[in-house]
Amino acid sequence: MTTPETGPAPSEPDVRSPSESPVPPAAAPVSAGRSRRGEPRTYDFRRPTKLSREHVRVLQIAQEAFARQATTILTTFLRAGARLELVGIEQFSYDDYVVTLPNPVFISTFSLEPMAGKGMLAYPLDIAMAIVDHMLGGSGRADQPSRPMTAMETTITNHLLDRLLDEFAASFGTITEIQPALLGHEYNPQLAQAAAGSDTVMVASYTMSVGTREGEATLVLPFSSFAQALNNAASPQLSESAIAKRKRAAEALTARLNLVPVDVSVRFAPLTVSSADLLSLAVGDVLLLRHPPDAPLEVTTNDVTFAYAIASNHRRRLAAAIVPTPYAAAKDTA
Q1: Angstrom distance (rounded) from CA 325 to CA 295
Q2: Which burial class, exposed, middle or buried, applies to 262 when counting CB atoms under 10 A from its CB (0-12, 13-18, 19+)?
Q3: Which of 90, 109, 269, 322 has a CA 20 to 30 Å removed from the CA of 178?
Q4: What is the CATH number of domain 265-333?
Q5: Residues 202-229: pLDDT tens digits?
Q6: What is the pTM of this model?
Q7: DSSP string computed for 164-202
Q8: pLDDT of 52-61, one tens digit each?
């Protein structure tokens, strides 16, 4: 007896950071153009994750809005079925991202005025050629050439890309004001110098379909340019009562920290001796200190020197009187 099979449940965009990316079964094949998704990557502790969950949530809203508007524009311009759907947002170094792109691939770079740095939009070259075919009245189903675009094809494509960049700026208006402008195109990923190799970039991955063709598109933005804007956008807008409550909590914490007991030591300058000399010490031996007789003692806590003092007494008890640091005293006498 058989039961009817049910299709897979629709999945939501994957917005995990690189350290949270799911690990697929070992036997699952991974295509060369999609190696940055669906397989484990080595975590480089020299380049820690900078894209927090809050950043991802803010970016997801903007990127999904851009995907919706881009779908409308593509459908209107091409008069054919077209779709751009967000898959996920991740952090990469620019070099790590570039090596995942196929060659050739259609890459458009654009400025991010008034911010520094460049953005980059990349998608398969055959889809880029099919878009030109559609805009010229063709069906887009024929085999597309794998070559750089001619001057006329580039002009036609630029008209569409300018509209997409306008929608990109509008979608990111909730994060920061930008005025992107198209800079140029490249077909070899190694020649697309949108950032330094070690720079951290934010990569939004999309599934892109035009007619019967489907592929992966990526939108790349420099993290350093958007870091402050993302922090501001990710910070919740608090009411006056919530702000006052946080202020009182901070004041109470500060007051309690001021009452925490701390071990303080007054000591001579540390002395270094060999292990043999240390083990041979006996009662009556004299251990020569390297502390100058006119130098103040060090006042330390947790091996950190924060003041200087001289030996004194107070009400029949040995005490230490705080004095200026040796550097300040030398400066005053100079």
Answers
A1: 10
A2: exposed
A3: 90
A4: 2.30.330.10
A5: 999 999 999 888 999 999 999 888 888 8
A6: 0.57
A7: HHHHHHHHGGGT-----EEEEEESSGGG--SS-TT-EEE
A8: 788 888 888 9
